[in-house]
Amino acid sequence: MKPLEGVRVLEIASIGPGPLAANTFLELGAEVIRVNNPKAVDMLPSNADPALKNRINITVDLKSNDGIKLVKELIKGVDILLEGNRPGVMEKIGLGPKDIHKVNTKTVYIRLTGWGQEGEIVNDAGHDINYLALSGVLSLLGKDGSPPIAPINLVADYGSGTMFAVISGLLGIYEVKNNNKENIVYDVAMFEGVSYLASLMFGLNDIGMWNDKRGANLLDGGAPFYRCYETKDNKYVAVGALENKFFRELVTKLELPEEMINEQMNLDRWSEFETKFSDLFLTKSRDEWSEIFKNSDSCVTPVLSLDEARSHPHAISRNSFFNNFPRSDNMLQEKNHKVTKKSIQSIFEELKISKDFVQQVQKNGTLLIN
Asked: In the chain, which segments carry CATH 3.30.1540.10?
């Protein structure tokens, strides 16, 4: 049995971090009903995002009274509601936290936005790059002398938004089940989550151990033992030999002078070391270096493409991908346990929602069962 089996999540359709959070709940055993917007314009093909698979999908017109009534009927049997609209939108249509908790005080209400539910710019539009910018973290990324570079949308959207939304859901379920709490609302602001993820950088900055010059620090490519190097075949290896014992192994494997080992943290020699490493890594292919460093403590790994990552022997040996996509449930011992997927009709019956009402909202176009 998976840990969230028996938990029901209602996901008000959004893009990016919301769907991935809902998918994480699903992979951990929860039942997820996604309420789609009939007028939504998809940015990507419907089959492009694996986080949207395996839902119970319905399309509901939330601008109609019947649509709101239907959602409230569903809420009677919902443990977690997840939404990602701008502040005030859910209240305006009649599905804000107070509206939901009038129906079910045990529903955990998760609000996932970039800026949060209060503050002077809460109604401003934004995306990952904007949340990253306001967090202070974007200023650390990229090469010195060039504009900062956003690392795809992994950090604010997914590292912050998705994961803190999932934590909120787990906390909420715990509070309801163990502490008998009611009317729980969580305000997940992505820009704050990013700042939290960068706690170490804030700390290093405050004690003078982080240079404002990008690419000149321990963890941003400035250190010759923590960066990527090109190989003979125009591919790359990643070197992460931070600790001195790992740096020793790296120097030994590369057959470089032993005196380098005690000079690891001598910033005046970093440029020299970088040149030595760069020249050496260009003498062999990426896969040749992979074999040399395999099963060692050198902290050297090949930089793989997405397709290569799926076929790497380590990922295969751990079943890290399921149906060719990454999975969140590999931490579980019972990860391969199958959860029975219900139909929306059976959920309507379970919650004793009037058949006549369901037929009415289907007939008038308020409800579309996908």
From this structure: 226-326
Cα–Cα distance for residue pair 232/238, rounded to 1 Å: 14
Residue 16 CB neighbour total at 10 angstroms: 21
Per the annotation, the verdict on 127 as an active-site residue is yes
- Catalytic residue status for 101: no
- Check 49, 127, 187, 297 and give the catalytic one: 127
Q: Residue 339 pLDDT more than 90?
A: no
Mean pLDDT, the chain, as a whole number? 95
Question: How many C-beta neighbours within 10 Å does residue 40 have?
Answer: 11
Residues 249 and 258: their CA atoms lie apart, in Å, by: 10
- For 125-176, the pLDDT digits (tens) are 999 999 999 999 999 999 899 999 999 999 999 999 999 999 999 999 999 9
Whole-structure pTM value: 0.94
User: Which residue ranges does the chain devote to CATH 3.40.50.10540?
Assistant: 8-196+340-369
Q: Tell which phi-psi region holds residue 29, choosing left (phi > 0), alpha (psi between -120 and 50) or beta.
A: left
**Nearest-angstrom CA–CA distance, 15 and 138:** 22
Using a 10 angstrom Cβ sphere, with 0-12 exposed, 13-18 middle and 19 or more buried, the burial of residue 147 is exposed
pLDDT in tens, 294-316: 999 999 999 999 999 999 999 99
- Separation CA 240–CA 262 (nearest Å): 17
Report the CATH fold assignment for 8-196+340-369.
Answer: Rossmann fold (3.40.50)
- Angle at the Cα of 32 (from 29 to 38), degrees rounded to 5? 165
Tokens at 244, concatenated: 């001195």
- Which option is the CATH number for 226-326: 3.30.1540.10, 3.40.50.1450, 3.40.50.1700, 3.90.10.10? 3.30.1540.10
Q: Which of 61, 157, 220, 329 is catalytic?
A: 157
pLDDT at residue 292, as a whole number = 97
Q: Is 298 exposed, middle or buried (0-12, 13-18, 19+ CB in 10 A)?
A: buried
pLDDT at residue 341 is higher than 90: no
